[in-house]
Amino acid sequence: MGVGPGDPELLTMKAMKRLEDCNLVLYTGSLISEEVKDLFKGKESFDTSSMTMEEIIQKVKEGVSDGKRICIAHDGDPSIYGAISEEIALLGKEGIEAEIVPGVSSFQLSASLLGMELTCPGGPQSIIITRLPQRTKYERKMIVERNSTMVIFLSIHLVRQVQEELLRVFPPDFPAAVVYRAGWKDQLVLKGRISDLEDLVRNYKITKTALIIVSECLRYNGHERSDLYFPGFTHSFRKGRSP
Protein backbone atom coordinates (compact mmCIF):
# COMPACT_ATOMS: atom_id res chain seq x y z
CA MET A 1 0.00 0.00 0.00
CA GLY A 2 1.40 3.38 -1.01
CA VAL A 3 1.31 5.99 1.76
CA GLY A 4 2.73 8.84 -0.29
CA PRO A 5 5.99 10.75 0.04
CA GLY A 6 5.52 12.11 3.57
CA ASP A 7 2.56 14.46 3.86
CA PRO A 8 -0.31 12.46 5.44
CA GLU A 9 -2.85 14.55 3.52
CA LEU A 10 -1.59 12.91 0.32
CA LEU A 11 -2.80 9.44 1.29
CA THR A 12 -5.64 8.30 -0.95
CA MET A 13 -9.09 7.59 0.42
CA LYS A 14 -8.55 3.91 -0.40
CA ALA A 15 -5.28 3.82 1.53
CA MET A 16 -6.98 5.43 4.54
CA LYS A 17 -9.79 2.88 4.39
CA ARG A 18 -7.33 -0.01 4.27
CA LEU A 19 -5.50 1.46 7.25
CA GLU A 20 -8.74 1.75 9.19
CA ASP A 21 -9.62 -1.86 8.42
CA CYS A 22 -6.26 -3.46 9.23
CA ASN A 23 -4.88 -4.38 12.63
CA LEU A 24 -1.20 -4.93 11.75
CA VAL A 25 0.98 -2.47 9.81
CA LEU A 26 4.44 -3.30 8.51
CA TYR A 27 6.46 -0.30 7.37
CA THR A 28 10.00 0.87 6.60
CA GLY A 29 10.60 3.32 9.41
CA SER A 30 13.47 5.18 7.75
CA LEU A 31 11.27 6.12 4.77
CA ILE A 32 7.95 6.93 6.44
CA SER A 33 7.39 10.36 8.04
CA GLU A 34 6.39 10.71 11.69
CA GLU A 35 3.10 12.30 10.59
CA VAL A 36 2.22 9.21 8.55
CA LYS A 37 3.36 6.91 11.38
CA ASP A 38 0.87 8.73 13.62
CA LEU A 39 -1.87 7.19 11.47
CA PHE A 40 -0.74 3.75 12.67
CA LYS A 41 -1.46 4.55 16.33
CA GLY A 42 -3.84 2.13 18.00
CA LYS A 43 -2.71 -0.70 15.74
CA GLU A 44 0.04 -3.23 16.06
CA SER A 45 2.89 -1.93 13.90
CA PHE A 46 6.34 -3.19 13.08
CA ASP A 47 9.35 -1.42 11.56
CA THR A 48 10.89 -3.63 8.85
CA SER A 49 13.96 -1.44 8.20
CA SER A 50 16.40 -4.08 9.44
CA MET A 51 14.61 -7.11 7.95
CA THR A 52 15.22 -9.14 4.81
CA MET A 53 12.36 -9.86 2.41
CA GLU A 54 12.09 -13.41 3.76
CA GLU A 55 11.74 -12.09 7.31
CA ILE A 56 9.00 -9.70 6.20
CA ILE A 57 7.13 -12.53 4.48
CA GLN A 58 7.45 -14.64 7.63
CA LYS A 59 5.96 -11.80 9.68
CA VAL A 60 3.03 -11.63 7.25
CA LYS A 61 2.56 -15.42 7.44
CA GLU A 62 2.40 -15.27 11.23
CA GLY A 63 -0.10 -12.42 11.08
CA VAL A 64 -2.32 -14.24 8.59
CA SER A 65 -2.21 -17.38 10.76
CA ASP A 66 -3.44 -15.27 13.67
CA GLY A 67 -6.33 -13.95 11.58
CA LYS A 68 -4.93 -10.43 11.25
CA ARG A 69 -5.61 -8.00 8.43
CA ILE A 70 -2.24 -6.67 7.33
CA CYS A 71 -1.05 -3.54 5.55
CA ILE A 72 2.49 -3.31 4.23
CA ALA A 73 3.06 0.44 3.97
CA HIS A 74 5.39 1.64 1.21
CA ASP A 75 6.56 5.22 0.88
CA GLY A 76 5.42 6.97 -2.29
CA ASP A 77 3.89 4.63 -4.85
CA PRO A 78 4.80 0.95 -4.38
CA SER A 79 5.09 0.33 -8.13
CA ILE A 80 8.17 2.59 -8.42
CA TYR A 81 11.32 1.01 -6.94
CA GLY A 82 9.12 -0.64 -4.33
CA ALA A 83 10.26 -4.31 -4.62
CA ILE A 84 6.62 -5.39 -4.69
CA SER A 85 7.12 -7.88 -7.54
CA GLU A 86 9.19 -10.19 -5.37
CA GLU A 87 7.05 -9.45 -2.33
CA ILE A 88 3.86 -10.53 -4.14
CA ALA A 89 5.59 -13.56 -5.70
CA LEU A 90 6.82 -14.80 -2.30
CA LEU A 91 3.42 -14.21 -0.70
CA GLY A 92 1.81 -16.13 -3.56
CA LYS A 93 4.05 -19.13 -2.87
CA GLU A 94 2.63 -19.12 0.66
CA GLY A 95 -0.93 -18.96 -0.67
CA ILE A 96 -1.40 -15.38 0.52
CA GLU A 97 -3.19 -12.98 -1.83
CA ALA A 98 -2.17 -9.32 -1.95
CA GLU A 99 -3.90 -6.17 -3.14
CA ILE A 100 -1.84 -3.25 -4.46
CA VAL A 101 -3.10 0.16 -3.37
CA PRO A 102 -1.33 2.91 -5.34
CA GLY A 103 0.05 6.04 -3.73
CA VAL A 104 1.27 9.49 -4.70
CA SER A 105 4.91 9.29 -5.78
CA SER A 106 7.57 11.76 -4.71
CA PHE A 107 8.13 12.68 -8.36
CA GLN A 108 4.50 13.77 -8.69
CA LEU A 109 4.69 15.89 -5.56
CA SER A 110 8.04 17.28 -6.72
CA ALA A 111 6.45 18.48 -9.96
CA SER A 112 3.78 20.25 -7.90
CA LEU A 113 6.37 21.88 -5.66
CA LEU A 114 8.25 23.06 -8.74
CA GLY A 115 5.04 24.44 -10.22
CA MET A 116 5.60 22.48 -13.41
CA GLU A 117 3.88 20.10 -15.76
CA LEU A 118 5.98 17.05 -16.61
CA THR A 119 4.70 17.13 -20.20
CA CYS A 120 4.19 20.63 -21.61
CA PRO A 121 3.02 22.16 -24.91
CA GLY A 122 5.89 22.32 -27.38
CA GLY A 123 8.08 20.37 -24.96
CA PRO A 124 8.54 16.78 -23.77
CA GLN A 125 5.62 14.40 -24.22
CA SER A 126 7.35 11.47 -22.53
CA ILE A 127 8.56 10.88 -18.97
CA ILE A 128 11.55 8.65 -18.17
CA ILE A 129 11.91 7.32 -14.63
CA THR A 130 15.46 6.05 -14.19
CA ARG A 131 18.46 5.72 -11.87
CA LEU A 132 22.21 5.20 -12.03
CA PRO A 133 23.44 1.60 -11.86
CA GLN A 134 24.70 0.81 -8.38
CA ARG A 135 25.63 -2.26 -6.33
CA THR A 136 23.15 -4.94 -7.36
CA LYS A 137 23.89 -7.51 -10.09
CA TYR A 138 20.77 -6.73 -12.14
CA GLU A 139 21.53 -3.06 -12.76
CA ARG A 140 21.00 -1.53 -16.20
CA LYS A 141 22.44 1.66 -17.67
CA MET A 142 20.64 4.91 -16.82
CA ILE A 143 18.55 6.09 -19.78
CA VAL A 144 19.32 9.63 -20.92
CA GLU A 145 16.99 11.14 -23.54
CA ARG A 146 16.93 14.82 -24.44
CA ASN A 147 13.35 14.93 -25.76
CA SER A 148 11.83 13.56 -22.54
CA THR A 149 11.36 14.76 -18.99
CA MET A 150 13.83 12.80 -16.90
CA VAL A 151 13.12 11.83 -13.30
CA ILE A 152 16.21 10.38 -11.64
CA PHE A 153 15.65 8.44 -8.42
CA LEU A 154 18.07 6.91 -5.90
CA SER A 155 21.18 8.52 -7.37
CA ILE A 156 21.69 11.79 -5.50
CA HIS A 157 24.75 10.42 -3.67
CA LEU A 158 26.31 9.88 -7.11
CA VAL A 159 25.45 13.35 -8.37
CA ARG A 160 28.79 13.87 -10.13
CA GLN A 161 28.24 10.72 -12.20
CA VAL A 162 24.66 11.78 -12.91
CA GLN A 163 25.91 15.17 -14.10
CA GLU A 164 28.53 13.54 -16.34
CA GLU A 165 25.95 11.23 -17.91
CA LEU A 166 23.55 14.11 -18.53
CA LEU A 167 26.23 16.30 -20.11
CA ARG A 168 26.85 13.62 -22.73
CA VAL A 169 23.41 14.48 -24.16
CA PHE A 170 22.29 17.86 -22.79
CA PRO A 171 23.95 21.30 -22.97
CA PRO A 172 25.32 22.59 -19.62
CA ASP A 173 22.66 25.31 -19.30
CA PHE A 174 19.73 22.89 -19.66
CA PRO A 175 17.23 23.28 -16.77
CA ALA A 176 17.40 20.86 -13.85
CA ALA A 177 15.99 20.69 -10.33
CA VAL A 178 16.63 18.79 -7.11
CA VAL A 179 13.85 18.08 -4.64
CA TYR A 180 14.92 16.81 -1.22
CA ARG A 181 12.50 14.94 1.08
CA ALA A 182 9.37 16.01 -0.80
CA GLY A 183 6.40 16.11 1.55
CA TRP A 184 8.48 16.22 4.75
CA LYS A 185 8.78 19.25 7.01
CA ASP A 186 12.40 19.85 5.95
CA GLN A 187 11.79 19.53 2.21
CA LEU A 188 14.00 21.57 -0.14
CA VAL A 189 13.23 22.60 -3.72
CA LEU A 190 16.27 23.71 -5.71
CA LYS A 191 16.23 24.94 -9.31
CA GLY A 192 19.23 25.37 -11.55
CA ARG A 193 20.99 23.97 -14.59
CA ILE A 194 22.70 20.67 -15.26
CA SER A 195 26.05 22.42 -14.81
CA ASP A 196 24.92 23.49 -11.29
CA LEU A 197 23.77 20.08 -10.08
CA GLU A 198 26.83 18.93 -8.18
CA ASP A 199 27.32 22.33 -6.51
CA LEU A 200 23.64 22.54 -5.53
CA VAL A 201 23.71 19.12 -3.93
CA ARG A 202 27.07 19.61 -2.18
CA ASN A 203 26.21 23.11 -0.90
CA TYR A 204 23.07 21.79 0.80
CA LYS A 205 24.85 18.61 1.97
CA ILE A 206 22.25 16.37 0.34
CA THR A 207 23.33 12.71 0.27
CA LYS A 208 20.05 10.78 0.05
CA THR A 209 16.24 11.00 -0.15
CA ALA A 210 16.20 13.38 -3.09
CA LEU A 211 15.42 13.16 -6.78
CA ILE A 212 16.53 15.06 -9.85
CA ILE A 213 14.23 16.34 -12.59
CA VAL A 214 15.67 17.41 -15.94
CA SER A 215 13.19 18.91 -18.38
CA GLU A 216 12.51 21.65 -20.89
CA CYS A 217 9.21 22.06 -19.01
CA LEU A 218 11.10 23.65 -16.10
CA ARG A 219 11.36 26.83 -18.15
CA TYR A 220 7.94 26.71 -19.83
CA ASN A 221 6.36 30.18 -19.72
CA GLY A 222 3.23 29.80 -21.80
CA HIS A 223 4.98 30.53 -25.09
CA GLU A 224 3.38 27.44 -26.66
CA ARG A 225 -0.34 26.68 -26.59
CA SER A 226 -1.92 23.26 -26.20
CA ASP A 227 -3.75 22.32 -29.41
CA LEU A 228 -6.46 20.60 -27.40
CA TYR A 229 -7.60 23.85 -25.76
CA PHE A 230 -6.92 26.17 -28.70
CA PRO A 231 -10.19 27.75 -29.99
CA GLY A 232 -9.64 26.53 -33.55
CA PHE A 233 -9.07 22.90 -32.57
CA THR A 234 -11.93 20.44 -33.16
CA HIS A 235 -12.46 17.27 -31.12
CA SER A 236 -15.39 15.02 -30.24
CA PHE A 237 -16.68 17.38 -27.53
CA ARG A 238 -16.16 20.74 -29.23
CA LYS A 239 -16.18 22.17 -32.74
CA GLY A 240 -13.30 24.49 -33.52
CA ARG A 241 -14.00 28.14 -34.20
CA SER A 242 -12.02 31.05 -35.50
CA PRO A 243 -10.12 32.89 -32.75
From TrEMBL:
Domain Tetrapyrrole methylase: 2-197
Keyword Flavoprotein among record annotations: no
Pfam families (alphabetical): TP_methylase (PF00590)
One Gene Ontology term from the biological process aspect of the record: methylation
CDD domains given in the database record: Precorrin-4_C11-MT (cd11641)
GO MF annotation list: precorrin-4 C11-methyltransferase activity
Record's keyword terms, sorted: Cobalamin biosynthesis, Methyltransferase, S-adenosyl-L-methionine, Transferase
Family: Belongs to the precorrin methyltransferase family.
Protein name: Cobalt-precorrin-4 C(11)-methyltransferase
Phylogenetic lineage: Archaea, Thermoproteota, Thermoprotei, Sulfolobales, Sulfolobaceae
